[in-house]
Design a protein that fits this description.
Helix content is 37%, strand content 20%. The chain is α+β, with helices and mostly antiparallel strands and 201 residues long. It has one domain. Strands 1, 2, 3, 4, 5, 6, 7 and 8 form an 8-stranded mixed beta sheet that branches. It is globular and about 45 Å long.
Length: 201
Amino acid sequence: MPYSQFTTITKVKEAFNLSTREGIRFLPEIAPISPSNTLRDYLEETLPIAIATGSEKARSELIITPVLVEVRRILDRKVTLFSGEDFTVDESLGLNGRCDFLISRSAEMLAIEAPAVVIIEAKQADLKTGFGQCVAEMVAAQKFNESKEKSIPIIYGSVSNGVQWQFLKLEGQTITIDLIIYPLPPVEQILGFLVWMVQEG
């Protein structure tokens, strides 16, 4: 069964014996990062379309993807962004299927290489509905890194509909969920958060 079977945070907690901490902002004070003129102009054009259309696909393509491509540019293309890539880690545990977005701390683009550091789950509207699936994918990233002997202390995740972003982190068996919903625009704050996560994970 794929990641999508984890429809609630409760299901994924029970499946992987996780504990949760809620409402805690784990992000430090992070300086916002100014976008390139290319991203600024692109979002100025596409944000109204994505919001008006409202579909998950439109928001993924017109908002989330360009923001994540900008993160890669800021980090001198030393990380790789995967979109819709198969990320089957352990079918017996239900850790199989496709991730909406995955960032690997590797410059290789043909296949996902460890360590996987950030998982982004795209949703059309209610962000809460994406928590279970996002956490399952974060657990998969943790196990994937361990299997490649490239474990890192923390895996970060986000559930986003493009204009709203919520952030999670997986450390050992503990999931911390920041209940604050961060808006886009402004893109500067979201870029700062994502770049920090990729570097710190």
